[in-house]
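Q: I'm teaching a short session on how sequence maps to structure, and I want students to see two examples side by side rather than one. Could you give me a first protein with its sequence written out and its structure tokens following it? Keep the formatting plain so it prints cleanly on a handout.
A: Of course. Example one:
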Amino acid sequence: MNRAPLILSVGIADARLSDPVWAGEMIALADQARIALLLLGDGHAAPFDPMAVAQWLTPRAGSVGLVPTIDTGADTGSATGGDTGGEPSSDVARALSALDAQTGERSGWQPSTLVQPTTGESVAHGVAFVAAMRSLWADADVGPDRRARSDGAEVDHGDRGGNADVLDVARPSHGHPVLVQTDADPLWSQVAADVVIIDMDSPKPPPGPKCLLRTYTALAGLDQIEALYHDGIIDGIHLTPPFPRRGLQEFADTMLPALIERGLLPRARATGTLRERLGLGMPS
């Protein structure tokens, strides 16, 4: 194959993800279906804590990339210079760095303004929040004395010259976790994402990110998906099944073999970091 294989993604915002038994079933089905990206919350206000669920799923995730929704409204004071009485952006950056280390660099994040009422102010806060997170990762040094800590604890940075804004955890070795955005969030056109999720009638995304076509089920649209992929219009599909267990099981049993047979997916499972498996370069 000249291109990276078709990217498979799924979004789940079901409250049952807070149930360990149900969540365990979902991650096992996602791994069986060769899902590359599991969006926890899918960019919306989820009835569970996406980061807590991601941390619990980590040892059970197999090759599935975990992508928790991150509420940019919760950290706007830190991201925009306001007084929040703490540094929650640093906490989020540290937690995402730890998650990436725990998963073997197979995680991402989906900053969202949809958790809060979507207003012009919330989008501006979201843009500032993403910039602040990337700045924290960029300023964190990489070296043997600042290697990523899988427990999220602080590492010794020695003399930081009084710069209290330096992140007290090493950045991921590939720069920062994969950033996923959806065209349902106005933030998608304001930040440079690694992966964007679109509908057929969405505005054309900027060049650079991988484009995934949103669909409730891929079972009826195989020919269209294959044509869009070969024409370079999409790089993958994002499933939003109304019944996650049934949808994932049907995909694994029916769609996955068809995709392999058509050469859209290799017969062997992909290995490597999430960036490598998605065909993404190092972030600038």
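Q: Perfect. Now a second example for contrast.
A: Example two:
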Amino acid sequence: MARNRRSNRLPLHLPFFEDIETSHGVVRLEPETDGSYTVIIDGMESSHIHPDPEHLVFEYMRWIASVITATYPRESALNIAHLGGGAASLPRALAHHFPTSRNSVVELDAKLISLVREWVDLPAAPRVAIREGDAFTVLPTLRTARFDIVIRDVFSNSRTPLPMRSLEAAREQRRILKEDGMFLANIAMDRDQRELADEIITLREAFGDIELIAEPSALKKRRRSNCIAIYTPGGLSDAARRAIRTDAVTVRTLDEKTVDRLASGGSIVELGSGAGAATVGH
């Protein structure tokens, strides 16, 4: 199927270098030399918008997209949930690659949603539909076994909020995923890898076997990085593993022994009586 070239033009006269208040923070656009621009939220790079929707600069987004595009044919009519939206770089890329897909985005910041629709050349709903809401509270309202793919990319500053790292959230994400579906979670991997251990143990409790994509240098605790946790029945395909190995960054799918080592000392994260309370068995 031919690609839709209409989305290869960025809107003109964007408000570059202005600090713009949103519902939950401040957003700023900074142009790059290739016609793209970076979206900065509360001082942190959040998204990158390129004239080519499938050109993803952020490494973790490339890894997620590589796994998905290597697994599913372009003509697949996928129903994809994006928990966390930002400027919708990834929904935009997947909507372009899979023209008959439906990308349902949950984003907390209502003003940001409005600005993104103004600034970014997003396909109209249902190809990309953005819903305002807190991902943790929206999850129970979503239909069981609705989605072929669920992507968790929820961050507050540099961390995933605790409720979205909980067993309750993991079980809800498993519930809305089809039996043969794929779950991917963007995880911030700190140098001490303690939260990563909890994430692995918690996700295993809800999904069973999971796989990790990570940089070898990050595993050696040289720097903070992102890694991707993936669940798919039967594990990743050879094509998906090859796609990951060809990324510009040296990144690998980890073997089970390495994942077990990273999980060592981790505990299941469970919420207490309130959404802000949790028990972690450290």
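Q: What should students look for in example two?
A: Point them to this: DSSP finds nine helices and 14 strands in the chain. Also worth mentioning: The first strand starts at residue 20 and ends at 21.
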